[in-house]
Amino acid sequence: MKKNNKIVYFLYLLGIATQVVATYPALADAEIEFSRSSLRIETADAVHIFDVEVATNDEQRSRGLMFRNELAPSAGMIFLYKRDRLLTMWMANTYLPLDMLFIGGDGNIVHIVENAIPLSRAMISSRRRARAVLEVNAGTVSRLEIKVGDRVFHDGLTAPYP
Length: 162
Description:
- The protein has four helices and seven strands, in the order ααββαββββαβ.
- The protein is α+β, with helices and mostly antiparallel strands.
- It has one domain (3-153): Jelly Rolls.
- Strands 5-4-6-3-2-1-7 form a seven-stranded mixed sheet.
- Strand 2 (47-55), helix 3 and strand 3 (75-89) form a beta-alpha-beta unit.
- The protein is globular and about 45 Å long.
């Protein structure tokens, strides 16, 4: 099997496994704790501060913002990984429309997906290697004019605070 075919097959299996976990009924009732921290995005014209919940382990990343009915305008969730890689997300069991910002280990935004559809099982890809994903309310990217290449500063990324 060619390397590309192996990668596609692996992602397919990962998608199936994630669907099983995400649709398991007990997940909705599970109490999962998230730490909170501040995150800063620097755009061409402004600096925007967010209060984010931090997902650093498999249990937290599997749960994410599922089953939530509201999210404050300056809130979000950052999913952190130990190394840059192709990341995939989905909206199963997520009731809120979201914008997703895929962030490289250097803190630069490498890809943005706006208005992800609630409850969709479609896979959403970073398209490029990324270290983190920031989820915020849909419309935030447009409202704040956030673009690919803007910088994100957070303790969980390797990019140092200036």
